[in-house]
Automatic annotation (TrEMBL):
UniProt cross-references to Gene3D superfamilies, sorted A to Z: Medium-chain alcohol dehydrogenases, catalytic domain, NAD(P)-binding Rossmann-like Domain
PANTHER family: OXIDOREDUCTASE (EUROFUNG) (PTHR45033:SF1), PTHR45033
Pfam families, per database record: ADH_N, ADH_zinc_N
CDD domains xref list: MDR7 (cd08276)
Classification via InterPro entries: ADH-like_C, ADH-like_N, Aminotrans_II_pyridoxalP_BS, ER, GroES-like_sf, NAD(P)-bd_dom_sf, Zinc_ADH-like
Organism encoding this protein: Aspergillus avenaceus
Database matches in PROSITE patterns: AA_TRANSFER_CLASS_2 (PS00599)
Protein name: NAD(P)-binding protein
Residue span, Enoyl reductase (ER) domain: 14-350
GO molecular function, one term: transferase activity
Length: 354
C-alpha cells in the first residue's frame, strides 16, 4: 500500500500550469472511505475549470487552486468505523455532485461538485463520503466506467429525466445528437439500447462513419451541410427530432428549434460552438418554443438515483463505453492538449493505476 498521494493541482492558468504534487494519505473519517483511483475520464468542464473559464454557475466561488476532474472509477482500500455501504476491495464510481441525491438540483448541492468547488479526482487516492459513490458496473473496466458520471448521466437525463424514475422510454423516438464528444456518444449508446432512432451531426465524415458503426441511423456533416436542420426534417419525413441533446449552443440552438418535432424536447446541455449571447441578432427562440409547444429545459448532470438507474440499464444492455484514447497518469497535460485539439471521438481517459 502506498504511503503518499500523487495529485494534480490547477491554479486556473491553463494546461501548462498543471502541477503534480505529493501529499500524505489521510485516514477516512467514520463515514468515509479511502479509494485508490484507477481511471479518470475528462470532460469539457475540466478544461474550462483549469482555464479559469468555468464561471457561469452563480454558486461557484472558486479559491486559488483546485484538484481538477470529477469522474473516476477506483477501488475502496480502507473504510471508516461506521461505514456500512462499502468494504475493502469494492469497485466504486464517483458522482459529480455528491449532495444531489434526487429530484431538482439546488444551488447548495452544486457546491459539492467534484473538481470545483470540492477537490477533484485527478489523484492516485482520495477520501469520499460513503454516500458519494455508486457501484462500478461489474461488466465494465475502470476505464470504461470512469466515462459514466458526467457524460452518460447527462445524456440519460436528456433521454429519461422527464419520465418517471424507472420507466425508461425512447423506443421509436428520433434523438438528435450534436457532434461526437463524450455526451453525444454516450447518448448514442443509451438511445440505441432504448430502441430510439439516432441522428448525429459532426464536422468529420470519418467520425460520422464511426458513429454509424455504433448504431447511428443518420449522420450529417455540419460543415458540409450548414443547413443540417433541414436534413433532420428530411430523414424524419417532416416529423423532426423528438429529443435533442443540445450540446452545441450558439451555432446550434436556433437550428434545434427549427428541426424539433411538435411537442419535442430540446435538452439544453452545452455550448461547444460557443455560449449564446442574450442580445444582438439572435432569433427569437421563445416565440418558436411557444408556437411549437416545446419545452426548453436546462440541466446540470443528474442525481444519484438516476445515475444508479442508468448504470443498471448499461449493465443490462451490456453497453461498453467508447474510449477514444488512454493516457498514463504522467501524461495528463498531453491528454488535455488532445482534448483541446478536438479530434477525439467519445471519451478520453487517464489510466491512473493498473
Ligand atoms: N449541463 C450539463 O450537465 C453538462 C454535462 C456534460 C457536458 N456539458 C456540456 O456539453 C458540451 C459537450 O460536452 P462534452 O463533454 O461532450 O464535450 P466534448 O467531448 O469535448 O465534445 C466536443 C465535440 O463538440 C462538437 N462540436 C464542436 N462544435 C460544434 C458545433 N458547432 N456543432 C455541433 N457539434 C460541435 C465536436 O464534434 P465533432 O468533432 O464531431 O464535430 C467536438 O468533438 C459542453 O459544452 C459541456 O460543457 C454539460
Amino acid at each position: 500500500m502506498a504511503t503518499s498521494i500523487q495529485q494534480y493541482v490547477s491554479h486556473f492558468d491553463g494546461i501548462e500550469g498543471l502541477k503534480k504534487v505529493e501529499t500524505s494519505i489521510p485516514s477516512p473519517g467514520p463515514y468515509e472511505v479511502l479509494v485508490q483511483i484507477r481511471a479518470v475520464s475528462l470532460n469539457y468542464r475540466d478544461m474550462e475549470v483549469i482555464n479559469g473559464e468555468y464561471n457561469h454557475h452563480k454558486a461557484v466561488n472558486q479559491g486559488s487552486e483546485i484538484i481538477p476532474c470529477s469522474d473516476m472509477s477506483g477501488v475502496v482500500t480502507s473504510v471508516g468505523g461506521n461505514v456500512s455501504k462499502w468494504k475493502v476491495g469494492d469497485r466504486v464510481l464517483s458522482t459529480f455532485v455528491p449532495d444531489h441525491k434526487t429530484g431538482q438540483l439546488t444551488q447548495e448541492a452544486l457546491r459539492s461538485g467534484l473538481g470545483l468547488l470540492e477537490p477533484g479526482v485527478l489523484a492516485t487516492y482520495r477520501i469520499f463520503k460513503e454516500d458519494a459513490l455508486i457501484k462500478t458496473p461489474d461488466r465494465m473496466s475502470h476505464e470504461e466506467a470512469s466515462t459514466l458520471p458526467i457524460a452518460s448521466v447527462t445524456a440519460w437525463m436528456a433521454l429519461n429525466g422527464l419520465r418517471p424514475l424507472g420507466q425508461n422510454g425512447g423506443k421509436g423516438e428520433y434523438i438528435l445528437l450534436q457532434g461526437t464528444g463524450g455526451v453525444s456518444i454516450s447518448g448514442l449508446l443509451l438511445a440505441k439500447a432504448s430502441g430510439a432512432k439516432v441522428i448525429i451531426t459532426s464536422s468529420s465524415n470519418e467520425k460520422l462513419a464511426r458513429a454509424k458503426e455504433l448504431g447511428a441511423d443518420f449522420g450529417v456533416n455540419y460543415k458540409e451541410r450548414p443547413d443540417w436542420e433541414n436534413y433532420v426534417m428530411e430523414v424524419t419525413y417532416g416529423h423532426g427530432a423528438d429529443i435533442i441533446l443540445e450540446t452545441g449552443g450558439s451555432e446550434t440552438l436556433s437550428k434545434s428549434f427549427a428541426c424539433a418535432a411538435y411537442g419535442g424536447l430540446i435538452y439544453c446541455i452545452g455550448y461547444t460552438s460557443g455560449k449564446i449571447q442574450a442580445a444582438g441578432d439572435q432569433p427569437n427562440v421563445n416565440v418558436m418554443a411557444i408556437s411549437r409547444c416545446l419545452t426548453l429545459k436546462g440541466v446540470v448532470n443528474g442525481p444519484t438515483d438516476r445515475f444508479e438507474e442508468m448504470a443498471r440499464f448499461a449493465e443490462k444492455h451490456q453497453i461498453r463505453p467508447v474510449i477514444c484514447k488512454m493516457f498514463k497518469f504522467e501524461e495528463v497535460k498531453e491528454a488535455f492538449r488532445y482534448m483541446r485539439a478536438g479530434s477525439h471521438f467519445g471519451k478520453i481517459v487517464i489510466q491512473v493505476a493498473q
